Amino acid sequence: MPQGDKSAYTDKQKRQAAHIEKSYEDKGVSESEAEARAWATVNKISGGGKKSGSGVHHHGEHKATRRRSDDRR
Known about the structure:
There is one protein chain. The chain is mainly α. It has a domain at about 10-45. The chain contains two helices and no strands. Helix 1 (about 10-25) crosses helix 2. The mean pLDDT is about 80.
């Protein structure tokens, strides 16, 4: 797959990128920069590309529990 190929993305990810890109363009960012920022944002949100199977992990979903020093056993 050549660099920049978007075929590995879901339709939802493509719609998200288009919406984000339009938002940047409305703020006065150039088309190419808006597209780059949009795909970077989609990659940050989803981890990039299609994901399938139960082995997919979304880091940061669970907060670590904190133990106070007096709770030690």
